[in-house]
Amino acid sequence: MHAHPDRVALAVADDSQSAASAVCIDATHDLEIGQCATRLRLLVAAGFAMTLLSASLAFHWWHGLADYDVAMGYVGVAVFGPVTCWLIWMLPAERGPVVMVTTYGIRDLRVGNEFLLWDSIADVSVEECRGHKAIVLTPIPALQRQLSCIRAASRGAQTDRILIQSDGLATDFGTLLRACRDCHAASDSRTALRRDRDQVAQSQAAQAS
């Protein structure tokens, strides 16, 4: 008794879809992550305090100040003023998400504007340096060559791996890592499903001929 080709194709598709749904449990929705509001607000408060202190020195709000203190006040206003304004501009309510993780790819605006497809990522791993963990994306050779052309003008830019930091984001490292691994696994499952379908189609064509 011989198995019917259509039944074989259906079985392969069902098995592949089951595997894909098993790894896509946490990757069914896009994940958009912005800057950590609490951290930025603390930095804004610190910058405002330093700017105010520098202004008090520059404009003689204190008695008995030396010329050196006044000069340092002007320098402080020139430095902390623009930095504080930039931090206010970077608040999440003003800027929106900086890291987007979808079932098709990932984009980190802190690294670059490129949307990296999971099909072009060979591996997702973890690296720890000085107590800080980072997600390491290892691109396939084709993507490495593409990134080399895009970042040719950036000295020291790495193209053999891409680091995704969780510091300063409105999420924890574990959540970001699980999202990346789940979406990458889902992409592998879709690729395997397409490969199985192509193999079944080729076998059917060979039998028909």
Question: Which structural category do the helix and sheet elements fall into?
Answer: alpha+beta
pLDDT averaged residue by residue: 78
The largest sheet has its strands arranged as: 1-2-3-4
Strand content: 15-25%
The SSE string, one letter per element, is HEHHHEEEEEHEH
Question: What separation lies between the terminal Cα atoms?
Answer: 21 Å
Radius of gyration: 26 Å
Q: Could you list the spans in which at least 5 consecutive residues all have pLDDT below 50? A: 1-27
Using DSSP, what is the number of strands? 7
- Secondary structure tally, helices: 6
* Helix proportion range: 40-55%
* Biggest beta sheet summary: 4 strands, antiparallel
Query: Per the principal axes of the C-alpha atoms, what is the gross shape?
Result: elongated
Secondary structure layout:
Elements (H helix, E strand, L loop, with lengths): L4 H19 L7 E3 L3 H22 L8 H23 L2 H4 L3 E3 L3 E4 L7 E2 L3 E9 L2 E8 L1 H10 L11 E4 L7 H36 L1
Antiparallel strand pairs: 1-2, 2-3, 3-4, 5-6, 6-7
What does this structure look like?
The chain is an alpha+beta fold and 209 residues long. The chain has a four-stranded antiparallel beta sheet, with helices on one face. A hairpin with a 2-residue loop joins β5 and β6. The N terminus is likely disordered.
Provide a quick synopsis of the model.
The protein is built from 6 helices and 7 strands, in the order H-E-H-H-H-E-E-E-E-E-H-E-H. The protein has helices at residues 5-23, 37-58, 67-89, 92-95, 141-150, 173-208; strands at 31-33, 99-101, 105-108, 116-117, 121-129, 132-139, 162-165.
